[in-house]
Structures are given as C-alpha cells and as structure tokens.
Amino acid sequence: MSDQQYDVDAWERREQIVLNVVPYVSLGLATALGLLVDHGSPGRIALQVGLSGAAIALVTYMAVLHRDRLERPRVAGAYYVVLLGLIGALIAINGMYGFAIITGYMHAFWLGPRWRALAVIVCAALGAAAQMGGILHIDRGALLVYLLVFGVNVLLAGGITLFAWRISEESDRRRDVIAELADANAKLEAALEENAGLHAQLLAQAREAGVHDERQRMAGEIHDTIAQGLAGVVTQLQAARQARERDGDWERHLDVAQQMAREGLAEARRSVQALRPQSLEESALPEALAEVAGRWTALHGVPAEVRTTGTVRIMHPEVEGTLLRTAQEALANVAKHASASRVALTLSYMGDLITLDVRDDGAGFAPDRVAPSADGGYGLTAMRRRVARVAGTLEIESEPGAGTAISASVPAVPMGDAG
Fold it and tell me: Quick one: a GO cellular component term (predicted)?
C-alpha cells in the first residue's frame, strides 16, 4: 500500500470514528445537562429521556448498523427529517439539547448537494432557538435577537460545515485518483508480466521449431564441406596409388589429400562450434565476442574492435548463442567478400532488447541485388533465420564501395525465463 493510500484510509477511519461517536456524546451530554437543570414533572423528564433514547436508537440503526442504506437519497432524506424532528422536539422541551444539533450538522453529509444548504439553515435555526433558552422563550421582543443569533450560527456553522464538505470531497477525489493509479499500475504490471511470458514462450517455441531447420542446415553443410572434402581425399589417394604404380607424381596427390583433410577437419571443428559455442560456457557474451574477434584478427590480419554499451546481464543461452553465431557468420562474410581493413563490433544492452552491430569498411554490396547462393547469399539468409528463431530482427545496410553494417536485435530474455 502506498503512503498516499495509507493517509487516505487513515483519514477515512478517523472520519468514521467521529461520525459514530459524536451523536452519542452530544445526545448523552445534552440529556445529562437537561436533567440537571430541568426540575419539571416526572412526565416531562420521561419525555426527554424517551425522545433521547429514540434519537440514539435511530442513529444506531441507520448510521451505524445499516449505513449503506443512507446511500439511497430518499432513505437518507427520510432519516434526516426524523432525526431533526426528534432533536427539534427535545430543544422545544429543554434548551440544553442544543448540543445535540452537532449531530444534525454532521449527518447532513448524507443528503444531496442541493439539500445540504437547507439542512444547515434548519440546524442553525434550531441551534439559535436552543441558545435563546428554547423555542418557547422566543417572543416578539426577543425575535430580533433570535434573528441575529440565527445569522451568526448560519455564518459560523455554515462556514465550518462547508469547509468540512470540501475536505471530504477532496478526500473522495484523492481516493478515486489513487484507485485509478493503482488499477493502472496493476494493469501495467500484468502487461509487463504477460509480455515477458510471451517473449519466453516465443523463444521456447522458436527454439523447438528451429531444431528441424538446424538439422537440415547442418546436413547440407556437412554434405557440402566435410563429405565433399572426404570424397576429395579418397579421390586424391586413389590417384596417388595409380601414379605410384605408373612411377608418376604420386607425392603431389598425397600433398593435396593432406591439405583437403586439414580443411575438412577445420570445417568439422567449425560445425561443432556452431552447434555448441564453448566460449559461452567459460565466459560472458562480451568476453566471448572479444575472443572470437581476437582469433579472427589473428587469422586474417584485419583489426576487429569489440565494444559493449549498457549494463551487461546474463541472458538465456539461446539468446547469447544466437548473437555469438551471428557475429561469427558476419566476420566470416567479411573475410570472404569484403576485403576490409577494419571491423567494429558493438554489443548494446538496451532495456528489453540486445543489439549486435558489425560494421566494416570493405567493398560493400547491394543487398537487394544479392541472389541466394549455395551459402544462402553471403550467409545473410542463414543469419536472418537464426535471429528470427529467437523472435529477433536482422537489418543490413550496405552499398558498393561504402562498407557494410549488419544489426541484429533480439529480446533480452534473462536466464531462466524460458524452459
């Protein structure tokens, strides 16, 4: 519960206590004082006590036990008329019951706005009569004094009552605003939780749906690289045997076979690494990217700078693996096609997204004119599919002679949000 909500609730509790206690205190005090100063007949005293008891019973039944009924205008009006009738009868009997008029001022809250002013005027009239010693003590000679006392009561009691109403209305508005804010906050939290759940669910579904595609891709890659390389090794070995039988240049065939075997081994290692990036198991994503870039620089002699922005957070393995493999594929494209002299990789943690930007100053190309080839069109198709599996997007900006910029954006799904 917020501090503002606590303050409003505390104010309402105090207000309810006052509404519950004041009628009993005022009627009880008026009855006690009335009995002390009234030395009338036993019947007069019994009438005062009976009317006081009736007023207390009415307040208890309507304003304490069944307060919800006072939300209906007609019921509230009937209750108020009966209450003022009892208080007026008591004031007519004994002026000390003017103390009970406080209850009349307070319970005017349950009337509609148009009737509250009339209720204040009636209460002021009854209060002025009590201050004059009772209704029976007002004659022609005291009428002017009564009117002056009545005017003072209207100004003082009316001003205080109006101020109390304004405070009550402001409290109601505040409570409504706080309730609206709490409802909006609850909806926002629910939307955020639903969004996180959808991200996690989408990631899990995309990972499951991508298993078949990944198997097909790996099968094609093995067929195009490792299998063909091994077939080439077998062919060279057979050629070397035939050349040896003819006393030909068999050593050259062995050298070619050895080179093809090494290339096949390198392709096999690259395929295994693509399936399960070992570097992510040993270090965080920024360090793994720096390690990949360092190895790539050492192999190709082209500087590759890695920069990280935002607060680094541990993400789901599928998210981090996708970004690492995208970086590897992008660097492979730079090595094959760009003839670049410099490459920059930027990893950015931005709230609910993580982006990877790979820029080079190489030859560039026209993305809309690249036709898919055996490797998927510079590997772009494969990268797009890989990023799409984790509900991400891949954008490419390039033109001939102006270098290339590849930007992959994926949801920032924390570790453990998807199973």
Answer: cytoplasm
Half-sphere exposure of 220 (CA within 13 A, CB side): 10
For residue 224 the two structure tokens come to 């195009």
> Does residue 121 lie in a domain region?
yes
**306 φ, ψ (degrees, to nearest 5):** -115, 130
Would you give the distance in Å from CA 399 to the centre of its chain? 42
Quickly tell me which residue has 């007023």 as its tokens. 55
Q: What is the pLDDT of residue 25?
A: 82
pTM above 0.70, yes or no: no
Low-confidence ranges of the chain (pLDDT < 50): 1-6, 8, 224, 373-377, 418-419
Separation of alpha carbons 130 and 93, rounded Å: 10
Which tokens in the block code for residue 340? 């670049």
Asked if residue 208 belongs to a domain, the reply is: no
Report how far residue 249's alpha carbon sits from residue 242's, in angstroms, rounded to the nearest whole number. 10
Q: Chain-centre distance of CA 330, in angstroms?
A: 37
**Residue 281 identity:** E
User: Of 120, 138, 156, at which residue does a domain stop?
Assistant: 138
In angstroms, the CA 65 to CA 77 distance is 17
Which has the closest alpha carbon to 417: 317, 340, 347? Answer: 317
* Burial (0-12, 13-18, 19+ Cβ within 10 Å), 88: buried
Task: Give the pairing type, strands 353-360 and 343-350.
Answer: antiparallel
Number of C-alpha atoms within 13 angstroms, CB side, residue 234? 6
Q: What is the pLDDT at residue 4? A: 47
Determine the Cα–Cα distance for residues 415 and 419; give it in Å rounded to an integer: 10
> Which of 381, 376, 410 minimizes the C-alpha distance to 396?
381
**pLDDT for 359:** 94
Nearest-angstrom CA–CA distance, 351 and 394: 18
Q: What is the CATH number of the domain that holds 383?
A: 3.30.565.10
pLDDT for res 83: 86
What per-residue confidence (pLDDT) applies to 409? 94
